[in-house]
Each structure stands twice: as C-alpha cells, then as structure tokens.
Amino acid sequence: MSAVSRPRRLDGVPDPDLVDVRAAQADRAAFAVLYRRYLDRVYGYCFYLLGDHHDAEDTTERTFLAALDAIERFRDQGAGFRSWLFRIAHNQVANALRSRGRRRTYPLESVAEPMAPADPAAEIGQADEARRVRRALAMVAEDRRQVLVLRFVDGLSSREIGAVLDRSPGAVRVLQHRALRDMREILAAGD
Amino acid sequence: MPRTPTVPERLDRALEQLLAGLSPSAAAATAGFDAPGRTLLETADRVRAGLLLPPVAPRFEARLGARLAAAASGDSVAWVLRHPGRLIVTGAVGSAVGVGVTAYAVWRSTRRSSTVRFLHR
Asked: CATH number of the domain at A13-105, out of 1.10.10.10, 1.10.1740.10, 3.40.50.300, 1.20.1250.20?
C-alpha cells in the first residue's frame, strides 16, 4: 500500500498554505487568499526594517507582485510557502535599503503607534513602552533585528527564519540569543 | 549519549513556549533557566508586546488587491510583454492593415463624391 506523502516543512509540520498555493498555481486569481493571509505580516516585516510607512507600502507591493509572478515556480522543498514569501520580502527590503544608500534606519521611534487600545491610560503606557522597544530595536545590528522581527512580529520559527535569511537554524538561534541580550542591555539602560 | 542543548537552543524552545502563551517565568522554568536566563525571557516578552503588527492602510490594501487581481487576470498581456518581438510584428501587421483599410475608405469616398459631383453637373 502506498502512503500519500504530505509535503512537510523543515520542522516536520505540514505546510498549511500548500492547498492555497496549489490553487493559485492552477488559477492565479486564487492568489488573493494568500495575499489576504499574509498582507499584515509582510507589511509588518517591511515596516519594522524600513521604519517608514511609505517605504513599507512600496516594498510590500513589490513583494506581492513578485510572489504572484513567481507562484508557478514555487516548489515545496521543505521550508514552506511562508519562508518563500518572506525571502522575497527580505530581498525587496535589501533592495530598498540599497537604493536609499543606507543600511540602518532610525525613524522607527518617531512613527505613529501601530495599534490603539480602548483604554486611554493603557494606551499611553503601551505607546511609551512600544516606543522604547522600537528605539531599542533600531539600535540593534541589522541581522539581529531581522531575526527579532521575523520571530516576534511574523511568528516564524528559527528554521523558517534560517530559510529566509539563508542561514542554518543554529546560526539563527545564536543571532536570536545575541539580539535579545542586546535588547536587554539597551532597554535596561533606557529604563 | 544525548548532547546537552546549548543556551541558544534552550532559549529557542523557551521562546516557542512564550509565544504560545506561557508567562516568561514559566517558560524560563521549563527551559531550566536561572536568573539571567529569566531576564532574557522577560526582555523577549517586552519585545513581543512592543512590536505589534502595524495597521495596513485600507486604501493601500484595496489598491494593491486590485493591482494583483488585474495582474492575475492579465495573463495575455503578460505573455505579450514577455515576447516583445511578436508584439512588434503584431503591431506592424495591425498598422499595415489599418493603413490599408483607411486608404481604401478614402479612395472609395473620393470616387463616390466625384461620381456624385459628375451626376449633379
């Protein structure tokens, strides 16, 4: 009896996007499902690395257009669609930073708050804390910042982050450890 | 003999638990972290809470959605753009046909008007 092999990601979990990816490969109009699913997270990744809403929109747009253009060529090779999409976003962010002519961005601390809680007092407290965290994030080295954003904003595992950044999962874990140590020191100095 | 997990590996597992909803102290305890390790997880919790997903502007979402829909349905346009040589040939043939049809129409109308003028002379 032949078992039906289900495509699996590197961490052994079946790729939850694969059915929708197959649908988009058969009919490109079905890409809309993947677009709606990942718009927020791709935008968040671009925003926290570029530090500017306009640049984040531009880079998000380029990412999804490139992904739609290449969807027929996507092959599940263990990393999953999510890693593949964020790798495109990662390349687009790198292009945006190159075209800007700078590798580090600092305006993160001055942008509007991402979300507003209902309670005004809590809103002020959360806004201050979010500003402190963003300021600290902007001071972390770029490769460490990428790991933090992919992990905490986009919810990727260390294996998926490795596939995005073209590094081994072990190297990502080391970067993650160093990034959190940096954040701890920066935040402690600011408190 | 099983290998002892490194600190980054233990931290990674503890982060998975933190992101799944465990408190920093509980995640640190399951990973066997001491006080400095616990402070790393507390930092991670601050980062998680501080880096919220920024809202996407509805106008941008709608515009990009429409652009993707147009790109998805514009396969024939994309095919033509991928084959510019054929686009030039198609354009040249189309132009030649257009010029021919226009010339014929002008010639016909000239003949008709001269015939009409002749009849009314």
From this structure: 1.10.1740.10
